[in-house]
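User: Design a sequence. Structure:
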């Protein structure tokens, strides 16, 4: 008794023709295949962004922590007002990197404002069109200007008057005539910011999107392989 498999040349020609249409991007389901790959790839980009924003390495890439001057003007949120340089250093270490307003992170989601998600029959492009993304991604320089808007943020983040009673004596030991318990650090920082206004600073590169690792590339290829199997097998979409 023979155990055999008969290959029908007509059926083989049909499947080869389907492969040809897939290779040329003529198969209608190619776009659906690339869309699924794009969704998985963008989820990978978001996962990497989230990890790096918390100071962790992702795909071998980590981001430098935010600088104290950046932390000085971040939204206060749950952090409360700062009273001294120690508070500022802690805030710079604790605050998530490049996630102040959440707009940049939202722009790397398929329907997020400023997102790039372009599907073609044999390719998909994912990324962001956020106006700040290029400089943050590649690094560069930025000129600091102590604008009225930044002054408002500074006042919102730094305590001008300290809790407690006004001091009886000045730091030099003289009788204090202050009407409030003024925070000296507030005035020192404000004067310093006015002095450095117009100065250029280096923006370190913090890559937002990096080349996929071999493991991720294999995942994308596996998705494509499953779609090709479905198309040739005539099972349609999943």
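Assistant: Done.
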């Amino acid at each position: 008794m023979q155990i055999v498999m008969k290959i029908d040349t007509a059926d083989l020609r049909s499947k080869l023709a389907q492969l040809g249409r897939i290779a040329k991007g003529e198969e209608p389901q190619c776009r659906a295949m690339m869309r699924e790959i794009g969704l998985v790839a963008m989820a990978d980009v978001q996962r990497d962004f989230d990890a790096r924003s918390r100071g962790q390495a992702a795909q071998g890439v980590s981001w430098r922590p935010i600088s104290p001057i950046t932390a000085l003007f971040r939204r206060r949120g749950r952090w409360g007002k700062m009273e001294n340089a120690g508070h500022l250093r802690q805030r710079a270490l604790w605050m998530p990197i490049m996630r102040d307003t959440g707009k940049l992170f939202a722009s790397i989601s398929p329907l997020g404002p400023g997102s790039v998600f372009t599907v073609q029959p044999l390719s998909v492009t994912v990324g962001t069109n956020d106006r700040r993304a290029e400089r943050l991604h590649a690094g560069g320089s930025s000129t600091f200007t102590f604008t009225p808007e930044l002054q408002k943020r500074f006042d919102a983040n730094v305590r001008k008057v300290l809790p407690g009673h006004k001091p009886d004596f000045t730091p030099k030991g003289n009788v204090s005539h202050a009407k409030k318990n003024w925070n000296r650090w507030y005035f020192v920082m404000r004067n310093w910011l006015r002095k450095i206004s117009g100065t250029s600073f280096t923006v370190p590169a913090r890559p937002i999107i990096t080349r996929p690792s071999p493991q991720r590339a294999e995942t994308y290829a596996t998705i494509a392989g499953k779609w090709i199997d479905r198309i040739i097998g005539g099972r349609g979409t999943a």
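Residues 35 and 56 are 29 Å apart (CA to CA). The longest strand covers residues 115-120.
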